[in-house]
Write a structure and sequence with these properties.
Chain A is α/β, with parallel strands linked by helices and about 120 residues long. Chain A is built from four helices and five strands; from the N terminus they run ββαβαβαβα. Classes of the chains: A alpha/beta (about 120), B mainly alpha (about 260).
Chain lengths: ~120, ~260
Amino acid sequence: MDFKIKDRIEHETVVLTVAYGYGEDTRTKLSQEMVQRYRTLRAQKGASKSCIVEIQSEVAGSAIVRALFDLWKEVADKEKDQLICVNYPRDYIGSLNAIGLTTLRGFSLAESVEEALRQLRKI
Amino acid sequence: MKDFIEKIGLFEFFAYLCPGAILLLSLGLVIPPQSDSDFPGAALLQQEFLQQEFLVVVFIFIFCYSLGLIVASWSGRGAEAYYRKETSGPRKKWNPLYWLLRASFGFAVRDRQASVDARVRIYEALPESQAEDLKTICLPWDFLFFVRMMMAEKISDKKKSLLAEADFIHKRFLFCQGVAFAFLLSAFLAFVRLAVAQFQARTFSFLLEPFWAALFLFGVFASWGLRSAAGYWWGLEVILTSKLVAHEADPNIEARARE
């Protein structure tokens, strides 16, 4: 697989750390895998519904955009639930805005996991 | 002149020259009528180069076009700022900047999730190399236009009409956005003129300056109406582009849908 996902719980919030490259596997499976990891971890540890996705790649493409959108549909169905994306490659934020992801209620960007947790009022 | 207009193109003429012309005319109307001798520009009008009609017409065209480009660019940026604020969360009701943006650039944002879903699908259908080129695009409406431009060569003849329709709607959208802001600025000028007249007469009545009152009301109404239309056209453009891209990514989509 041309992507790696690590998951953990911080302050009762699911944090998914994802590193990826370009490739067919990323395009087809990244979204599925991230949603699955989120569901499993939440069910096991009873974390809150909000989620933080930390990106560890320099590029962004349709795979991560699709994954974030699918995860947002899973996470943010109520006013207070949020999906926060940390470290989204700066050069690609324009296209993320153009696609409209940043305009969705409950979706936001942050510079670090600490900042994301502050946004969620967890610390 | 005919060749010149043909070269500029009808779209350019309407989308950029019109907002500039509307604003220039409004500014002209605001200057109070005075006798020739009192008019501050009277000496200027006597200049030799202004006696040459052709030069004056070309100058006015260029001036209107430049003004129109500026107005259209402000309008686009303003609409984008409004779009962001509109979707930024529940606290906007107490934010004066939000209400200013809403009054100036607001348009109807319909079914946000479906629209984002359609745009994600469009993005997915692009090859990675082309998606990379889109990283500098910031305005949501420019995104659709660039996607179509990148796909134009690949689009089959059957779908050319869909492409043409989407492009036409995009032009209509830009026209509505540019002219709406020009009308709003005209309404603002009329309001200032109206306010000055009311202040001088020390009374409040729309009938005191009916022309300015009418221009103000028309400007506000036209701006609001055009912005509503722009919101509608943009929604339609998203749907058409998403259909176009889906068809190109999977030409058998209709056959499979029937199955």
